[in-house]
Amino acid sequence: MGRDRAITPKYRVIEQFLMSQIKSGIYKPGAKLPTELELMEKFGASRETVRKALDRLVVRGIIVRKPGVGSFVNSSIGSNVVGIIVQQITSYIFPYVVFGAEEYLFSNGYKMLLGNASEDPSREKQIIQEWVESGVTGLIVDPVYSATRRSNRDYIKSLVKQGIRVVIVHTDWNIEGAGCVVLDDAYGGTKAAEIFHQYGHRRVAVLYKSIHLPSLIRAMSFIQRGRELGFEKIYEKSFNVSEFTGVPMQLAYELLTMPKQMRPTAVFCYNDATALQLRLVAKRLGMSIPEDLSVIGFDDAPIGDFRDVLSTFAHPKEEVGRKAAGILLKMLQGGEAEKCVLQPEFVERSSVAGPVM
């Protein structure tokens, strides 16, 4: 026991103590907690350490702090608080998904806890565990590593069995009792292949993230339809890390530095962030879009001036958040889990043209 205490940071010891007191009912919703001074004396801790423990509980929505008055157990904990965790909160389409969910939840009298998985399944699981410990019974999860064994699929499945209401977005794991909001990703891949074929391309490529289930579906449907259409060559380039690391640029370079008679004349990118990196490589190599290379992306994301050029599939970002929140609230009120499939609309701009013979 003493050894465990030595390993565990003191702020975590204080945090865990208060959590156990709250969960056991010693401190009920609305009850005042011990003062900072009392906690300092009880644990032999500095004021800074005590405040760190309390601040962590505030962030988790478990307590509220009133300056000059004290710290209190959140009176609404678990009753009207929903947690939403996304892959990367700071960029790309994810803030829009969150905004859609938050708007719906707020208008229906619910509060929201926000989690950033940072594309790390361990971090994702830790955040969800803390929320569940704090009494949150409703979750919206945009899972990371969703196409791999590293995903938290089994953990999410266990939560559903425990009675936690869960809606999964962007990934259909077919978990009984869980809600789901996804895009028709297969449509995107199929349509991209058909467009390239209509423009007369014979050598094509797909650039995608193999650890992400929607990406995998888009890529596989592109390849399958491409084979049916009889493309001369279909190059498949995948990566298993975040696209925001710049790794797609290396794969794009490998594709675009092939001998001219071999290299693809059209590339389908699983998302616009990947398409943007392809464009940067093409530009450095002196290639123009669409004269030398046709490109189709996915998401219609806010990526600067390339958005004005890129033909892509519009991702109903905010609608995904609203739909997920709507399904979750119905489930929290005793309704059944629902699955919603949204159709991405193709947005034709100017990044696709016929190949130069």
What does this structure look like?
The chain has helices spanning 2-7, 10-23, 36-43, 47-59, 94-107, 121-133, 153-161, 185-198, 213-229, 247-256, 272-284, 317-332; strands spanning 63-66, 70-73, 81-86, 111-116, 138-141, 165-169, 179-183, 203-209, 233-239, 266-269, 294-296, 312-314, 339-342, 345-347. 44% of the residues are buried. It is built from twelve helices and 14 strands. A six-stranded parallel β-sheet has the order 4-3-5-6-7-13, with helices on both faces. The chain is of the alpha/beta class. It has three domains: 2-73, Arc Repressor Mutant, subunit A (Orthogonal Bundle), CATH 1.10.10; 81-184 and 317-343, Response regulator (Rossmann fold); 185-315, Response regulator (Rossmann fold). Helix 3 (36-43) packs across helix 4 and helix 5 packs across helix 12. The protein starts with a helix and ends in a 10-residue tail after the last strand. 41% of the residues lie in helices and 18% in strands. Mean pLDDT is 93; it is low at 1-5.
Q: What would you say about this model in short?
A:
This protein has 357 residues and is α/β, with parallel strands linked by helices. The protein folds into three domains: 2-73, Arc Repressor Mutant, subunit A (Orthogonal Bundle); 81-184 and 317-343, Response regulator (Rossmann fold); 185-315, Response regulator (Rossmann fold, 3-Layer(aba) Sandwich). It contains twelve helices and 14 strands.
Q: Which secondary structure elements does this structure contain, and how are they paired or packed?
A:
Layout: H1 2-7, H2 10-23, H3 36-43, H4 47-59, E1 63-66, E2 70-73, E3 81-86, H5 94-107, E4 111-116, H6 121-133, E5 138-141, H7 153-161, E6 165-169, E7 179-183, H8 185-198, E8 203-209, H9 213-229, E9 233-239, H10 247-256, E10 266-269, H11 272-284, E11 294-296, E12 312-314, H12 317-332, E13 339-342, E14 345-347
Parallel strand pairs: 3-4, 3-5, 5-6, 6-7, 7-13, 8-9, 8-10, 10-11
Antiparallel strand pairs: 1-2, 12-14
Helix pairs in contact: 2-4, 3-4, 5-12, 8-9, 10-11
